[in-house]
Structures are given as structure tokens and as C-alpha cells.
Design brief:
single chain, 468 residues, alpha+beta, FAD/NAD(P)-binding domain, protoporphyrinogen ix oxidase, domain 3, Polyamine Oxidase, Chain A, domain 2, 3 domains, five-stranded parallel sheet, 16 helices, 22 strands, 35% helix, globular, binds flavin-adenine dinucleotide
Length: 468
């Protein structure tokens, strides 16, 4: 019997356990898996709370389906009937501009216009800004294969205004990161590829749209929207994974020590127990992996610590519909850096997804902190609710008391993929001692689908090694 210990019970650790179990069965490899999670619950950043008929997500609220790994996992786990898509009949997104909400033009794919009429008539971007974006059509592609920041990439192709109004709040917002430091290759490699292949983002996105329109539709499953979630919240995915695992799951205990032995590893748990392993997967934040690896390899630990993290908070507020003066006719709004608002973005959750609010109620979720003002994420819960209420009063005109309020403070939660990230990760992976693996949001993609994909790849590597 071979022994695998996975440290960290977030989605990456759980997916690793699930796919290692599958791969071991396929290869007739007797494999005992132990997963250790420091907190009293599994899921890591995935936390769903369900007070009084609301479904409130503390961390992620959905996953993108263009990266198929999370959707596939839900289907494999028998969650097909539980999947819900976004309410695309009302999919407008707004940008706060001069204190007012302005609708993003239809046909904008992240930042790239693919429908010209709505783009040209939009009041979100000035004429000068629109002309500069149009120059993307003729500006020659960059030949230098080196990484660059998201800000440099967008400025070069679409201009400063597109960066300030669209890319910084939308694209850097997804990663809760500073656009001037964020690696384009690690976060939006498709844009780099489009520039290389088509010489222009607009040309490339138009070609992609045409190809999608021609592609055969549907595959027997229900309608797939760009973002999807589960009826009872994403915690359903965590629960289904837990049910599907035959592994030993230890919760409420941290791995506090890691030693190398002549043929594997010994791990010490905070409760005093020791575990023997032929292979170890560290599916924790990079700084937690660094702590464990320091006694084994101080240099590797120091390099892991160069992956920076920022802190954020989400504040969800529910209101009676009758008390809410704004129609919430869209998925929410993002806030450019130049605005005086202290929010990064606000999702109109009960419009974006069905069944998120109690009857006759609405639900909104505001994001605070991040690289713009991390200190805000450390405020106490009452102060955060008060801050968000002030901002919503200014922007949406709501004065009423919320009927429900939930605050989740995420300290050092968002890994920062600074320029050169992928090279640093490749070097880290190469420096790991045999039988030890790093996986999860710190390395090769922060979203749930990328974490699932990494878990899959790590599981395959572990089983190949242990079966050899
Ligand atoms: C507010 C917010 C909103 C987000 N929204 C989205 C979204 O809508 N869609 C999306 O796809 N992604 C979203 N993300 C990103 C995504 O949720 C995370 O990147 C992903 O869930 C991280 O998974 P993980 O398993 O890598 O890490 P984590 O979830 O952080 O799990 C790591 C686990 O390791 C445990 N651990 C640490 N040290 C030890 C130790 N020594 N011993 C034992 N256990 C240990 C931790 O307790 C933790 O449970 C969001 C993130 C945040 C913070």
C-alpha cells in the first residue's frame, strides 16, 4: 500500500484527492490517501452561508465554464441537476464613472469591442478613447516573447483610457491585483496568443465570435452560461467531493512539521499525531507551504515567499425589495481606481443568479480592500457594513436597514501573479524534492477551474510516480 498525504482541504486539495483516488483505481495501485485541513471545515475559500432563505457566498460565487474543469467535475459528481446559470436576460454590467453608473456597451469581451454600434454610442468612453482603442486594428504585434504587465499590454494595444475604465477594474479586479504588476502571460494568456496570431485583439475576438456562432450547439446538457454555480451555493461542490472520497479526512488540525526520510516523508500534525507518506501534496497558500518547507530547503521556502498575497473582504447585504429604490438591472458594477468610492466592485447577486435572495428580497455583495486599500479589509465587521452602506447610499440611493448582513474578511487570500510568475513557478516546481508537489491557487491559475485542473495534473503525477 502506498501512502499519499495532501495538506490543505480547499478545492485544489480536494480535487487532488478525488483524481488521485480515480487514477489509482485505474492503475490498480493500492493507495491510502489522508487529507489534512487546519480549519474545522473543508473548502478553504469556498464558504456558503444560508441565513433566512438567502444563499450567501463568502468567497467565490461561481466558476467560469470556458475553462471546463470545474463544470466537468460537478457533472462527474452527479451535480448536473444542481447547476444553475446566470440570468443572461439581465446581464448588463456597469462602471462607476464620475460617481454615476454607466452601462458597459454590449459586445464587449472583457475589454475588447466586438459589436461596433453599442461601442460607438456608449457614453462610458470618450471619443478620443474609442479612437485609440480602434488603433488596435493597425498597431503591429509585439515580437518580444518576454512577459509584461496587464497595464503595459492594454496601454500598448488599446490605450490608457481602456486600461483605466475597463481593464483595471474588470481584468485586474478578477485577480484582485495591481494591473501595473500583474503578469499578462499568467492571467490572460489568450490575449497574448490572440495578439501573436491575429496581430490585433479586435480582429482575434471577432474571429473567435464567428467560430463560436458556427460551432454545433448543446450536448444534451442544460444551458451552459459563461459563469455557473450550484443551487445551494458552491459549498455543494465541497460536500459532494467529501462524499465521493474514500480518503481519511482530518479536519481541525494543521500539519506543523515535515521531514524527509530515506524513502518518503514524515508529517507531524498539531494534535501530535505523525503520518508517514510516500508522496506529499502541499495544497496550501504559498506562504504556508514555505513554513513547512523551510527546515528542508530554506532557499525553496524563501522563493515560495516571493509570491505576494493581498487581503480583501466581501460584505453581503440583503434588503426587502420594497425598500430598494434601484432596479438592480444588471449583474453589478466595477469601480475604476480614479473614483472616490471605497468599493472595488459590487455584484447584484439576486439579479445575476436565481434563488439567491429570500422571497421579496434582493441580495448584493460588495468587495473591499485588495491592492488599492488593504487596510479596509482589516476593519471590524460593523465598520465594514457601515462603509458599504454609505457607498450604496451614494451610488444606488438605498437608505433602508438591510434585513441580512454577512461579512467575510479574507486575510492574505489573493495570490499576486506578478510579471514573470510562470517562470518562477516552473523553477519552484523543478526545485521540489522528489515525491513532493505544490498545487493550488498560488501557482497556475486562481479560479476554481484552474485549481481543479491543477489537482488533476498533480494527482496524475503522484500516481505515475508511486506506480512506477
Ligand atoms: C473573496 C473571493 C472571491 C473569489 N471569487 C471567485 C469566483 O467567483 N470564481 C472563482 O473561480 N474563483 C474565485 N476566487 C478564487 C478561488 O476561490 C480561490 O483561488 C480557490 O478557492 C483557492 O483554492 P485553493 O484550494 O488553492 O486554496 P484555499 O481555498 O486557500 O485552501 C487551502 C487550504 O489549506 C489549509 N491550510 C493552510 N495551511 C495548512 C496547514 N499547515 N495544515 C493543514 N491545512 C492547511 C487552509 O486552511 C485552506 O483551507 C475568489 C477568492 C476570494 C478570496
Amino acid at each position: 500500500m502506498r501512502r499519499l498525504v495532501i495538506v490543505g482541504g480547499g478545492i485544489a486539495g480536494l480535487a487532488t484527492a478525488y483524481y488521485a483516488q480515480q487514477a489509482a483505481a485505474e492503475h490498480d495501485l493500492p493507495l491510502a490517501i489522508t487529507l489534512v485541513e487546519r480549519e474545522a471545515h473543508l473548502g478553504g475559500k469556498i464558504v456558503t452561508d444560508r441565513p433566512d432563505g438567502f444563499v450567501i457566498e463568502g468567497g467565490p460565487d461561481s466558476f467560469i465554464t470556458q475553462k471546463p474543469w470545474a463544470l466537468q467535475l460537478c457533472r462527474e459528481l452527479g451535480l448536473e441537476e444542481r447547476l444553475i446559470g446566470t440570468n443572461d436576460a439581465r446581464k448588463a454590467v456597469y462602471v462607476l464613472r464620475g460617481g454615476r453608473l454607466r452601462r458597459m456597451p454590449e459586445g464587449l469581451l472583457l475589454v475588447v469591442p466586438t459589436q461596433f454600434r453599442p461601442f460607438l454610442t456608449s457614453r462610458l468612453i470618450s471619443w478620443r478613447g474609442k479612437l485609440r482603442m480602434g488603433l488596435d486594428w493597425v498597431i503591429p504585434p509585439r515580437r518580444d516573447p518576454a512577459d509584461e504587465s496587464l497595464a503595459d499590454f492594454i496601454r500598448r494595444r488599446l490605450g490608457q483610457e481602456a486600461l483605466d475604465v475597463l481593464a483595471e477594474p474588470m481584468m485586474a479586479g478578477i485577480h484582485v491585483a495591481d494591473a501595473e504588476r500583474l503578469s499578462i502571460q499568467a492571467t490572460f494568456p489568450r490575449f497574448v496568443e490572440i495578439e501573436r496570431r491575429y496581430g490585433s485583439l479586435i480582429r482575434g475576438m471577432l474571429a473567435a465570435r464567428r467560430a463560436r456562432a458556427k460551432a454545433p450547439r448543446a450536448n444534451g446538457h442544460g444551458k451552459t452560461t459563461v459563469f455557473m454555480t450550484l443551487r445551494g451555493g458552491l459549498a455543494e461542490l465541497v460536500d459532494a467531493l467529501e462524499r465521493a472520497l474514500h480518503a481519511e479526512i482530518v479536519i481541525g488540525q494543521a500539519v506543523s512539521g515535515l521531514e524527509r526520510t530515506h524513502d518518503g516523508y514524515t508529517l507531524t500534525l498539531s494534535g501530535g499525531r505523525t503520518l508517514i507518506a510516500d508522496a506529499v501534496v502541499l495544497a496550501t497558500p504559498a506562504y504556508a507551504a514555505a513554513e513547512l518547507l523551510r527546515p528542508l530547503d530554506a532557499d525553496l521556502a524563501a522563493r515560495l515567499e516571493t509570491i505576494r498575497y493581498v487581503s480583501t473582504a466581501t460584505v453581503s447585504l440583503g434588503y426587502a425589495v420594497a425598500d430598494f429604490p434601484h432596479p438592480l438591472d444588471g449583474f453589478g458594477y466595477v469601480v475604476p481606481r480614479s473614483e472616490s468610492s471605497r468599493l472595488l466592485a459590487c455584484t447584484w447577486t439576486s439579479t445575476k443568479f436565481p434563488q439567491r435572495a429570500a422571497p421579496q428580497s434582493v441580495l448584493l455583495r460588495a468587495f473591499v480592500g485588495g491592492p488599492r486599500d488593504e487596510a479596509l479589509a482589516a476593519l471590524d465587521e460593523d465598520a465594514l457594513v457601515a462603509l458599504v452602506r454609505e457607498e450604496l447610499a451614494r451610488t444606488l440611493g438605498v437608505q433602508a436597514e438591510p434585513t441580512v448582513a454577512r461579512v467575510f474578511r479574507w486575510r492574505r487570500a489573493n495570490p499576486q501573479y506578478d510579471v514573470g510568475h510562470l517562470e518562477r513557478v516552473a523553477a519552484l516546481e523543478a526545485a521540489c524534492p522528489p515525491g513532493l508537489y505544490l498545487t493550488g491557487s498560488a501557482y497556475r491559475g486562481v479560479g476554481i477551474p484552474d485549481c481543479v485542473k491543477q489537482g488533476q495534473a498533480t494527482a496524475r503525477a503522484v500516481v505515475t510516480r508511486l506506480g512506477a
